[in-house]
Amino acid sequence: MRFGINLPPNVSPAEKDGAQVFEEFLQLSELAEELGYHHVKTVEHYFTHYGGYSPDPVTFLAAVAARTSRIRLVTGAVLPVFSHPLKLAGKLAMLDNISRGRLDVGFGRAFLPDEFEAFQIPMDESRERFDEGVEACRRLWAEEDVVWAGRFHQFGPVTMLPRPYQRPHPPTLVATARTPESCEAAGRAGHGLMMVPSINKVENVRDMLALYRKTYADAGHPPLEDQVQMTYHTYLHEDADEAYRLGKAHAENTHEKLVGAIAKWAQTRSEAYRGYEQIAQKAKEHDFDQQLKENKVLVGTPGQVIEQLEQIREWFGEITIGLTVVAGSMPVAESARSLRLFAEKVLPHFE
């Protein structure tokens, strides 16, 4: 197993302003490299307190690249539905060069109704726009004189500059939430997979992973180093009671922001997101203790977290895990302490 850090800015202006958030995130990124973590990852979201400080993860990751030399950079994820592929492919190729080939590109479909409404893009088009955007980026990176005649974008012949540092292009991953069809499509196309196991039953995640891995192998794609990536809310403390008390408080802070961001699903319907109309109600039924019992959050002493991770590895195999060590108004010193404790007491167990 490999471990990195996930830095979604789930924070409100009343808690921290943007300048403070990004300075703290850059400090944590430098610390993560110093401690031997595998990657730094952040999101693309807009407008809400659930990630809205990060409308462009490429900008933040370029700053991380300037302050580090080894740690990998992961977009978790960029959203092709809101970007022209010429712009998206170009700025990701720039980041790949600035970082000298440390970029992994994670793509996502987007799922927040407020974002689609603001960009004036129908949610029912999201799957087609996603597929078109990802494939256009891959062709722009790998080929010259590209001619593209899609449903939403037409261009060419064009040759993207700069060419990616990694050839034919950076590793690509796609985010999947709930559907086996998404996992199957990712495997067939040769992408890695990004998942958030906290929103699914263990049995469903295992079934989706088995389908993905079989489809990927049957398609004849070469193995990827970090083929499956998952993210977990993480809080460690030497004292078990303090770990529980503070880990729960920070997890619930983030969850409140998620509830606000998805509230419009109660009135939204889309064929491209079947069943999502139920997530607003399900989110209100969130139970931290149940999440902890089911190993959907990594909270406890180092020994307790090792036991959780051993169970996760038994369920899902060798995966790459992103530790979400930030939440709302959490002091950066607490995030740093969790990172150090994990690196000192947990990482050696899995090396």
Task: Please tell me about this protein's structure.
With 351 residues, the protein is α/β, with parallel strands linked by helices. The protein has a single domain (2-350), classed as Alpha-Beta Barrel (TIM Barrel), CATH 3.20.20. Helices cover 46% and strands 16% of the residues. The chain is built from 13 helices and eleven strands. The strands form two sheets. Strands 1-2-3-4-7-8-9-11 form an eight-stranded parallel β-barrel, surrounded by six helices. The chain has a two-stranded antiparallel sheet with strand order 5-6. Helix 1 (18-35) links the parallel strand 1 and strand 2 (39-42). Helix 1 runs parallel beside helix 12 (332-345), helix 2 runs parallel beside helix 3 and helix 3 packs across helix 5 (126-142). It is globular. The model has no long low-confidence stretch (mean pLDDT 95).
